[in-house]
Amino acid sequence: MTDGQPQAARQIPADAQSILAYLPNRIRIALITSAAAIEYPIKAVVEMDLASCLDSLSVGLCRL
CA angle, corner 10, sides to 7 and 13, nearest 5? Predict the structure, then answer.
């Protein structure tokens, strides 16, 4: 991760970084910021948002 990203980005496990690397920068930063705000592991936040993309009735990052 680059120096321009939140401090939480520097503490992300390697496996989560490999998933986040495929996402656009604005979504990556939103996920990292969200995980830090609710004090959840980034892997859990990514999983929840991916699950919300699969649920047609939910509102999440897929609807942005």
Answer: 135
